[in-house]
Amino acid sequence: MEDNIQLNAHNKEEYPPMHTAEHIINGLMNKKYGCGRAFSAHIEKKKSKVDYHLDHELTQDELKAIEAEVNDVIKQDMEVWTEYAKKEDMAGRFDLTRLPDDASETVRIVHVGDYDECLCVGLHVGRTSEIGEFRISSGSWKEGVQRIVFRV
């Protein structure tokens, strides 16, 4: 089963540093604002965007603080590692509603040190220090949706 999960991960055209940075910003946004992980994301090598449901537009100071906090996590040189578990055992730990209908009974959990964990089949760096510098290019808010555009 693990081979199928790994095979699916390698079919995705992802840039591991950018994808791992997405995990860190998602963890931070949930911890800081209680908004959960991005409900929509578009991750590419040159720039990426994530969307969150928020009750207010983030100020420039808040965006700068998010950028600084993500960079602090990156500089901690945390190990990025995976764990496999039965989907049925993860129901209380993760939101399983976002899994595709044909998801296997074994799920892959990606950990960014002890900072973040989530279900994921994507490609990631081995350590956060491999991400490089995280920069927020822009932020916009419309009708309860905060978009953050970033680069690494």
Structural write-up:
The chain has 152 residues and is of the alpha+beta class. It contains 3 helices and 7 strands, in the order ααββαβββββ. The strands form 2 sheets. The protein has a 4-stranded antiparallel β-sheet, covered by helices on one side. β1 (40-42) and β2 (48-53) form a beta hairpin. α2 (16-33) packs across α3 (60-75). Residues 1-11 have low confidence and may be disordered.
Provide the fold topology:
Elements: H1 2-11, H2 16-33, E1 40-42, E2 48-53, H3 60-75, E3 80-86, E4 106-112, E5 116-119, E6 135-142, E7 145-151
Antiparallel strand pairs: 1-2, 2-7, 3-4, 4-5, 6-7
Helix pairs in contact: 2-3
Provide the descriptors you would attach to this structure in a database record.
7 strands; 3-stranded antiparallel sheet; single chain; 152 residues; alpha+beta; globular; 29% helix; 4-stranded antiparallel sheet
Number of H- or I-type helical stretches: 3
Shape: globular
Mean pLDDT: 90
Helices and strands, in N-to-C order?
HHEEHEEEEE
Q: N-to-C terminal Cα separation, in Å?
A: 33 Å
Computed structural class = alpha+beta
Largest sheet: 4 strands, antiparallel
Helix content: 25-40%
In the sheet with the most strands, the strands line up as 1-2-7-6
